[in-house]
Inverse folding.
């Protein structure tokens, strides 16, 4: 899960890019980057940390030009927190190209070998995004017969990317001296929208992971980029688009609606907020059928993405809704923090329970999902410490039982609390008195209800059905082995740094 942004404006784009990335900060807090184009010259600044920390006034002043792309990142399996892996990435052959990517290429290792042995290209990091950039650069080189590009040649290159790349990818890229390119994988897994605004100087365009970035900057949402489609906006602001994949289906990642996206976003014609209300309503129906024996005094959401579901659930059940947790907004989202210890520590730093809402009450806590269980366990204990009598727990999504390989950091079965556990066992693990999960059919219907045209979703983390059809047990086992090796190396590095610091202090 990353956030990407692209702008073709009639005036300096640096402030628009910065403001847009702030609206996408929830999609990644590990690193941020902006590249602007002034004629055929790129200006880049990127680094580790939040957007507000990466960019200073002197950095912004150096980002010249009316066109640019931006990226916010969090590390998925196989990546590191090295500044070298902050995006956008850059290559200078056959054209100057910068690229930002949201998703994950599941055949990145194979492509890396092809780039080195056949395409004679070198990838300098472990990021699949740099692999994708070099594949695009190679396909552009193969598609052009001279030193000049036009939209047809660019779209032909994107078709080549679709034929070679597997997995999920939403992409923004700039080609020096030409314009802004954006495209989406043929399965439409990761979101990508575009819009425009009329100014005194002419029409400006923006492409983004979520519509909230457009809304807040005054751009009007036109539509989503279709699966397999590419759009190209040249330096003069002329818009071009083409379907570049032979076979396409729309299968948006359902976890975007559950947790990842902001509630004020529209994704594939669906209000994220509306889907979360629907999730609460369907979950209330299940609770009516299965939890009639429980005496619930109050419904309390786990801030913040579960709030709409919890509110609708409480209204549907006729039970009081209360805010029992106060959130420190300056602590990052625990789900996307690398390292289990860091997640556990940050839960109590970012949430504080108000005993007035818990003391002596039977409380129904509502969360959007239970992934590793670390946060849920800590929250249940916080509610007990605040004086709750009974603690019931409801998840607005089904149990997460399988790794996600399309760009969300839940890659190993051992890390998932629902692996080889039934709901009663999960309930025991998080120390709740009762636990209820949303059914998968009810979850998908909660989204389809907001847009009946959506009938298929990427739901692999719930049912193990990998929509691209290229994921094998061997792939999952290799991914998990690499994950464990990286964790062991990280732990070893932490111990080494600790030993060194102790030696220095002595």
């Amino acid at each position: 899960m990353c956030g990407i942004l692209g702008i073709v404006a009639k005036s300096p784009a640096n402030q628009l890019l910065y403001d847009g990335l702030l609206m996408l900060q929830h999609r990644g807090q590990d690193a941020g980057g902006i590249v602007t184009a002034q004629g055929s010259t790129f200006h880049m600044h990127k680094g580790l940390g939040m957007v507000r920390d990466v960019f200073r006034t002197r950095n912004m002043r150096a980002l010249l030009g009316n066109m640019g792309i931006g990226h916010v990142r969090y590390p998925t399996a196989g990546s590191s927190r090295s500044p070298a892996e902050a995006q956008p990435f850059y290559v200078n052959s056959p054209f100057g190209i910068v690229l930002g990517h949201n998703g994950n290429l599941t055949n990145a290792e194979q492509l890396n070998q092809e780039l080195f042995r056949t395409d004679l290209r070198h990838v300098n990091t472990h990021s699949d995004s740099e692999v994708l950039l070099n594949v695009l650069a190679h396909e552009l080189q193969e598609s052009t017969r001279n030193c000049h590009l036009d939209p047809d040649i660019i779209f032909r290159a994107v078709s080549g990317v679709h034929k070679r790349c597997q997995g999920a990818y939403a992409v923004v890229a700039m080609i020096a001296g030409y314009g802004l390119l954006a495209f989406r994988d043929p399965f439409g897994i990761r979101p990508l929208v575009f819009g425009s605004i009329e100014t005194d100087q002419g029409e400006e365009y923006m492409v983004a992971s979520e519509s909230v970035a457009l809304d807040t900057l005054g751009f009007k949402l036109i539509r989503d980029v279709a699966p397999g489609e590419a759009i190209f906006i040249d330096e003069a602001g002329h818009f071009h688009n083409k379907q570049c994949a032979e076979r396409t289906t729309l299968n948006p990642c359902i976890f975007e609606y559950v947790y990842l996206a902001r509630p004020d976003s529209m994704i594939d014609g669906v209000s994220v907020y509306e889907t979360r209300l629907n999730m609460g309503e369907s979950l209330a129906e299940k609770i009516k059928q299965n939890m009639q024996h429980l005496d619930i005094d109050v419904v309390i959401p786990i801030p913040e993405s579960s709030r709409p579901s919890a509110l609708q659930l409480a209204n549907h059940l006729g039970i009081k809704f209360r805010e029992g947790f106060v959130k420190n907004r300056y602590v990052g989202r625990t789900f996307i923090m690398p390292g289990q210890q860091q997640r556990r520590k940050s839960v109590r730093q970012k949430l504080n329970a108000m005993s007035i809402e818990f003391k002596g009450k039977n409380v129904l806590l509502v969360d959007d999902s239970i992934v590793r269980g670390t946060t849920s366990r800590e929250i249940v204990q916080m509610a007990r410490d605040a004086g709750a009598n009974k603690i019931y727990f409801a998840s607005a999504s089904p149990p997460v039982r399988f790794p996600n390989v399309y760009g969300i950091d839940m890659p190993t079965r051992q890390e998932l609390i629902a692996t080889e556990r039934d709901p009663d066992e999960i309930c025991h693990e998080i120390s709740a008195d009762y636990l209820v999960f949303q059914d998968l059919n009810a979850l998908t219907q909660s989204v389809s209800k907001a847009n009946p045209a959506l009938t298929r979703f990427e739901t692999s983390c719930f049912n193990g059905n990998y929509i691209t059809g290229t994921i094998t047990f061997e792939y999952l086992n290799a991914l998990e082995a690499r994950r464990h090796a990286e964790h062991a190396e990280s732990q070893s590095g932490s111990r080494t740094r600790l030993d060194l610091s102790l030696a220095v202090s002595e």
